[in-house]
Amino acid sequence: MLSEKQEEIIEAVWCCEETGDCSIETIRKRCIADFTDDDLRELEKQGVIVRHADKILFSSTGKLLAEAVIRRHRLAEVLVSSILRLEASAMEEVACKVEHGLDPDVEESICTLLGHPEVCPDGKAIPKGRCCKKRLRLGDNTVVSLRDLKPSERGKITYIKPGSHSNLHQLISLGLHPGITVMVHRTSPVFCIKFENTELALDEEIAKNIFVWKIQSA
C-alpha cells in the first residue's frame, strides 16, 4: 500500500519520464511533495523504482503501479474540470485529494461515467483501464461523443479532445467550449449543431472529438 507521499513521487517520476528527463533534480522540482533519500530508498526496497546514477526509473512492477496512480489522477482532473467545472488554479489541488480516495470500483465507475476519456485537460494520455478495454457504458447517463447524438438531441460539452484537429482552437474561439449546451440540428448531408443562437456545420472527425453529457428529454 503506497502512502500519498509515495504516490506523489511516483507521479513526478512518470511525468518526468514523459518529457525524457528522469534526473532526481528534475523530479524534485516536479514533485509537489518534498522527499528525502530515505523516501527513495523505501520505494527501492518495495521494488517500485531503480536508481541509476542521478536518474530514477521504474521497475516492471513499479511501472504498473505508476500507471494506476497516473490513471486515477488524470481521471480526477477530467472529473473536476469537466463535470465540477473548477478553474485550473483549483483543479490540481482538488484532483490530488480526489485521486487518493478512489478505489478500483469507484475509479471504473467514474471513467465509465466520463465516457472513457483518453486525455486529461492538459492533453496528457490517460492510461486505459479494464473498463476502457470492455467499453463499459452507463446507458444514456454518460458522457458520449457529440457525433453519437441524433437530431434534436442535446448535450452539455464536458471536454474537447486537444490536438485531435487543427480547427479545435477555432471552435473554442467561436464559443464552443466546456459548459456550453449544444443541440444536433442535422447529421446529413453535413453534421450541424446549434448553440447560443449560432448554427455551425462540423466535420464529423471534429464532432467525434467533442464529448458531451447527454441531456435527457423532458
UniProtKB/TrEMBL annotation:
It comes from the Bacteria. It is found in: Cytoplasm. Keywords: Iron. SMART domains: FeoA (SM00899), HTH_DTXR (SM00529). Residues 144-214 form the Ferrous iron transporter FeoA-like domain. GO terms for molecular function: DNA-binding transcription factor activity; protein dimerization activity; transition metal ion binding. Signal peptide: none annotated. Its main location: cytoplasm. GO terms for cellular component: cytoplasm. Homodimer. This is Magnetosome protein Mad30. It comes from uncultured Desulfobacterium sp.
